[in-house]
Specification:
The chain is α+β, with helices and mostly antiparallel strands. The chain is built from 7 helices and 7 strands, in the order E-E-E-H-E-H-E-H-H-E-H-H-H-E. The strands form 2 sheets. Strands 4-5-7-6 form a 4-stranded mixed beta sheet. Strands 1-2-3 form a 3-stranded antiparallel beta sheet, with no helix packed on it. The two termini are 31 Å apart.
């Protein structure tokens, strides 16, 4: 693909724009973001382990902004922690702290119902949570899930299941 640099964004194709911004300060780029959304089109927002590194208020500001754009679909993939923390969650959280990249907002939204409520409170009409274990074993096409199972780096299937039960996809729309 040919990436074209403009003053404040990059374009790959007419309908695909890359906008560099600090998500902690999304309001400062609101007009630029609004310039590239189209009410008549689907506006898809993908957060793959991104919002979890922001403070809760900054992460929710991103969600609230996306929910104000007509025809928005938000896909969030990240760690989903529930109280009380189990040993895997404690180990995972300690790992991210030790790596100097603590999970900030993930620890403030505990469980599926809390995630759904969060998206509703941020302006999305509907939201659904699917754990990665559910996706891999029941929703993913067999050919794809078999590829994952062939290359997975875990010694035991139980370890993979434990890992997958701590990650989820949230799909929301307005």
């Amino acid at each position: 693909y040919n990436v074209v640099k403009h003053d404040d964004y990059y374009s790959v194709k007419d309908n695909y724009k890359l906008i560099p911004l600090d998500l902690n300060c999304i309001d400062s780029r609101r007009s630029l973001l609004e310039r590239f959304t189209r009410p008549e089109a689907f506006n898809i927002w993908i957060s793959e382990c991104v919002l979890c590194y922001l403070e809760r208020e900054a992460a929710d500001t991103v969600l609230r902004f996306a929910s104000t754009i007509p025809n928005s679909y938000f896909i969030l993939y990240e760690q989903l922690v529930s109280l009380p923390y189990d040993p895997f969650t404690n180990c995972m959280l300690a790992h991210f702290v030790k790596s100097n990249s603590p999970l900030l907002s993930s620890t403030t939204v505990n469980g599926c119902e809390a995630q759904i409520k969060r998206f509703h409170n941020c302006g999305f009409a509907s939201a659904k949570v699917t754990f990665m274990s559910e996706y891999l074993y029941n929703l993913c096409p067999a050919e794809e899930s078999n590829k994952v199972l062939e290359v997975q780096p875990f010694d035991e299937w139980e370890e993979l299941d434990l890992f997958l039960s701590h990650y989820a996809i949230v799909c929301a729309d307005n």
